[in-house]
UniProtKB/TrEMBL annotation:
Principal localisation: cytoplasm
Matches recorded under SUPFAM superfamilies: S-adenosyl-L-methionine-dependent methyltransferases (SSF53335)
Compositional bias segments (type: Low complexity): 1-13, 221-231
Catalytic reaction annotation: adenosine(1618) in 23S rRNA + S-adenosyl-L-methionine = N(6)-methyladenosine(1618) in 23S rRNA + S-adenosyl-L-homocysteine + H(+)
Keywords: Cytoplasm, Methyltransferase, rRNA processing, S-adenosyl-L-methionine, Transferase
EC number of this enzyme: 2.1.1.181
Cellular component per GO, a single term: cytoplasm
InterPro entries in the cross-refs: METTL16/RlmF, rRNA_lsu_MeTfrase_F, SAM-dependent_MTases_sf
Protein name, per record: Ribosomal RNA large subunit methyltransferase F
Alphabetized GO MF terms: 23S rRNA (adenine(1618)-N(6))-methyltransferase activity
Family: Belongs to the methyltransferase superfamily. METTL16/RlmF family.
Annotated function: Specifically methylates the adenine in position 1618 of 23S rRNA.
CDD domains cross-referenced by the UniProt entry: AdoMet_MTases
Length: 335
């Protein structure tokens, strides 16, 4: 899914007021410290009309370099890159999803966040950037399996994991061999996960994705794509499979719901981001038909942008209690 970009002015603290309380990125970016982490960032930092410093968020090279600096300063990741044209997501929003998932586990576990490598999380569509596993492991010690249909993304994700000691033994990256499948083919029969997460493509076609990127470009104040002097529309990048899927978000999540029911005993909470509120009624209907025992919608906000995640489980109360006793009994108290 292509995140909505922030303009230089809106990347200030005011745009981060709605971030999760544990999110490390709630305040303004300290560019002095970030440049100290990654000196190459200095070339992209400039004063704004508001008297502070920022980067041009319409410049994909600037966005990528900022991400490198954030990952190094806050998460101890020394080696990180993505191939040209691949999704380079805003880290604050990705971190928010992780923190809300930690809260979801805590709500299921008497207020205790289950931490450590015993907690296993499946990232559907890990991408070349590997942001969710990085943040989830560094914040809570969780162990991840990341899947993707793109061999280039899988290869890059494996390279990031292999080249950072902070991720040793924490992330297993797998190729999803069938593009239309979600869990089938990558989840082993006896394998269990405490959580799944996903940031699905929400456009229904390449034309729709391009139209969305033109609107983003205009919102950034650089005029329509293709205009003289216009900045690149794909400032956060994105391959076709990252941006759109036949039938759009609603069809993708219908398939996810159907496949989740097949492995209903392999996971406690299935979760996904949902970009369009119009998608929710159909997803709720599918989950009711599939006999999910609990469905929750959690709102997340970053400035004026509102997003949400939907979580569901098929475990009844007895199965949930047995799961907690077996897997979460050694969890730590949240700070």
């Amino acid at each position: 899914m292509t995140p909505a970009p922030a303009s230089p002015a809106s990347s200030s603290a005011a745009d981060k007021e709605g971030l999760h309380p544990r999110n490390r990125h709630r305040g303004r970016y300290d560019f002095t410290q970030l440049v100290a982490s990654v000196p190459e960032l200095a070339a992209f930092v400039a004063p704004t009309a508001h008297g502070d410093e920022s980067i041009d968020f319409a410049d994909p090279a600037a966005v990528k370099t900022l991400n490198r600096a954030l990952l190094k300063q806050f998460y101890g990741i020394d080696n990180w890159d993505v191939p040209a044209g691949y999704l380079t997501p805003p880290i604050p929003g990705r971190a928010d999803y992780i923190h809300y998932l930690a809260d979801l586990l805590a709500e299921s576990n008497g207020g205790v966040i289950p931490r450590g490598r015993g907690i296993r999380v499946l990232d559907v569509g890990v991408g070349a950037n590997t942001i969710f596993p990085i943040v989830g492991h560094r914040e809570y010690g969780w162990r991840f399996v990341g899947t993707d249909t793109d061999p280039v993304a899988v290869r890059m994700a494996k390279q990031i994991v292999a080249s950072n000691r902070a991720l040793t033994g924490a992330v297993d990256v797998r190729l999803q061999p069938v593009a239309a499948d979600i869990f089938s083919g990558v989840v082993k029969p006896a394998e269990v996960f405490d959580l799944t997460l996903c940031n699905p493509p929400f456009h229904a076609s390449a034309a729709e994705a391009e139209a969305g990127n033109r609107r983003k470009n205009q919102n950034l104040g650089h005029g329509p794509a293709g205009a003289p002097g216009a900045k690149p529309a794909l400032n956060f990048g994105g391959q076709p499979h990252e941006l759109w899927t036949p039938g759009g978000e609603a069809t993708f999540l219908w398939r996810m719901a159907e496949e989740s029911a097949i492995i209903r005993h392999n996971c406690y909470w299935f979760t996904t981001l949902v970009s369009k509120k119009e998608t929710l009624p159909g997803l709720y209907k599918s989950l009711k038909k599939l006999q999910a025992t609990d469905v929750r919608t959690i709102s997340m906000a970053q400035g004026h942008k509102v997003s949400r995640l939907v979580a569901w489980t098929f475990l009844d109360e007895a199965a949930q209690q047995a799961w907690r006793a077996k897997r979460w009994s050694g969890a730590e108290r949240p700070a």
